[in-house]
Amino acid sequence: LVVRAGSGCSAPVFALLLDMALFNQVDANGDGVISREEFAAAMMPATTYMEPTAVPATTYGAPATTYAAPAPTYAM
Hints:
- The protein is an all-alpha fold.
- It is rod-shaped and about 95 Å long.
- The model has no long low-confidence stretch (mean pLDDT 75).
């Protein structure tokens, strides 16, 4: 890992880069140095696009109601 004075890298960002797994991800060409281009690419938000999906139509209406006579009861 090479740190150059005046690189403009803030302490919190640099602390994240110290994690070797993250460093290796950012170092796209594997030369052991993070170039400005690699750093800028790592700081860009990942953009993902999803395929549009069909949304079921929403219907509004009263629920079906059924009316029936109460069940007969027989007293003994």
